[in-house]
Design brief:
Mean pLDDT: 79
Low-confidence stretches: none
Structural class: alpha/beta
Strand content: 5-15%
Distance between the termini: 21 Å
Radius of gyration: 12 Å
Largest sheet: 4 strands, parallel
Number of helices: 1
Shape: globular
Number of strands: 4
Strand order of the largest sheet: 2-1-3-4
Helix content: 25-40%
């Protein structure tokens, strides 16, 4: 799944939708997009957002998570 900040900038939402589209085209899997406060209790997230701004990197990262920060 793709996780974006609760108050994501439009460019972050656009990036999430683009990532979702290209992953689906390449693999057939459609990754859901969640706001940070509504993400499920699961593993293996891709985080998009601004570090130290509207998005906080989780304090404890799961080794299966991938964190990508846009500035």
């Amino acid at each position: 799944a793709i996780v974006i900040p609760d108050k994501a900038l439009k460019v972050v939402l656009f990036a999430a939708k683009e990532l979702q589209y290209h992953v689906q085209r390449a693999s057939g899997a459609k990754l859901p997009i969640f706001n940070e406060s509504r993400k499920p209790a699961a593993r293996g997230f891709i985080y998009l957002g601004q570090p130290g701004g509207r998005f906080r990197t989780p304090p404890v990262r799961d080794p299966d998570d991938f964190v990508e920060c846009w500035s």
